[in-house]
Amino acid sequence: MSKDLELEDLKKPSPSPSRIPQRTFLKFVLICIFLSTLWISNYIPLPIYHHEYSVCSESGSIYTVDEVTPQVECISIVGSRISYTGSSKELQGRLYRRAQAVSWLQRWLVSRLFSRVSHKISYVNSDAIIVPGLADAHAHIMINGFKMQLELDSCKSLAEVLEQTKAYIYSHPDIYNNKSQWIEGGGWDQTKWPETGFPHAADFDTDPLLRGRPIALHRVDAHASWVSTRVLEIMGDLPTKVKGGSIVRDSSGNPTGIFLDNAMSLIPVPEWTDEQMTTFFDTTMNLALSYGLTSIHDAGSSPKIIQFMKKQAEAGNIPMRLYIMGHVSSDEYWGSQIPRLIDYGKHGHLTIRSVKLVTDGALGSWGAALLEPYSDKPDTSGIMRSTPKTLFNLVKQFWKDGWQVNIHCIGDRANHVVLDIYQELIEMGHNETTTMIANTTGEGELMKANVTEWRPRIEHAQIMTMKDLRRTNELGIIASVQPTHATSDMWYAETRLGPNRIKGAYAYRTLLYGSPKHVIPLGSDFPVESVNPLLGFYAAVSRLSVDGTSPHGDGGWYASEALTRAQALKGMTLDAAYASFTEHELGSLTPGKKADFVILDRNIMQVPFKDILKTKVVATVVDGKVAYGAL
Ligand SMILES: [Zn+2]
């Protein structure tokens, strides 16, 4: 048999060069690829297999917000995650041991194939510190970009607002030449002006450039809009009453041009185009990164904006983590109008698993719903924008469908009503889900288990009765607060509320100390306040305005409610992560977590209060990659 084969083989023509057996040829090709890779890698940087590096502080000023190792000298990053935190000496030892563990041939091959795996260690300046990536637990991304078109925050009088609006028109030839084009902006605050009360539509008519143009300027808290006479003409007949809002009228019953809360939706402003949305979005993202934010909880996006964000996520255009609360102004259940997305998109940066509901207005426009009338305006107790029954049904259905519910409550009535709703539903949930929960947690933990699962939030939790402050904590409701609101409102809050109610207002330390999970997520509510999270940090720890003053002097306004620096930093990192179900991934510099961190040029944990405000961000790192500045 074998002989036959040999004979057969002899009869075959000898293989020509083009007919080399397949296996030999394959081997040859592989060797060629291997050799050329080695050769090319000397000239072309190959993709980095493991982006690996460490950042160290010789003074040990890396504040981890990890209670096991609160301060370290070095952090190491592999890919998008933190791989090590600890001392510089231990890090050097680890790297040395690792280097010894592999032979020179392995090292040479790996460095050739995967290119630059060498572990770079950079040192921050001696004054600089590193903290976890900062989060804003309550902000408005798109409205901020929108407002930045025409910002009126710095205006100290009505005349200044008019001047700024004119300057905006002069700098936009398309608007200058087209009198029918809408002019929108925001940030005005009549409490900062010498004039008393709200401005008037007729104020725009005092200037020939502004007269006859459709202008809508939103108040700093976005709970009031001031429109021009032209807008009132376009609107025509107005309803006499608006549920959950109001149209301000003069003594003869004519609208003055001020629309409050739900009445604002009557103003026929043009819809945002895709191009505008992209500008608004990018503007806010870039600004936020430059201030060290790596995560934002957006407090209310419409289905249209959510679709826009979804597209941005798919295209990889979201440079930080966004935790979006869906919002639709409707008393009917709208859970089906928004998609549920977790770590969605090219970089996994978009999460939508919560909704925002609104109970009342804001304090600055006397819209916060109070249990008793305003001390400085006894004819009103504020505005309830939803009825307790509507809110109850919405919360119940959202919880049933697995959405986290976050409710805007400023006044003590709003907070009281919402706590009633949460309490009733938690107790109902206790009964309804007994079997399901009992399997995993056992008796006695039932109510707590539900709250931990649902993580209900009250956004602002601004003015509460003493009893409700306690109830918030007993129920385990997350109070999501904005420290700059305390320092912005402190000049008039006590006049509005009187000496007793003020004791339960902006009570951050009370809320934190009683919180069963010891959490108080901090936010800015930008564009109501600045995007810079360090202003919130400063306000939380100092209870002072940026010029170092307060109605109670330089010791701070109701300073007993100030947070410590460590508490404030945790509020802006780990607590915000908890409020968005991500405490195991984000919020502290802990091995295994995402490598989101910020380098600040000075030690905000130690410098005098006033120096906190001078802090500059050296670098903002998201997923281990520099998103702003330089390492
Ligand atoms: Zn808000």
Automatic annotation (TrEMBL):
Residues 129-628 form the Amidohydrolase domain. CDD domains: YtcJ_like. Signal peptide: none annotated. Pfam families: Amidohydro_3. It comes from the Eukaryota. This is Amidohydrolase family-domain-containing protein. It comes from Lentinula lateritia.
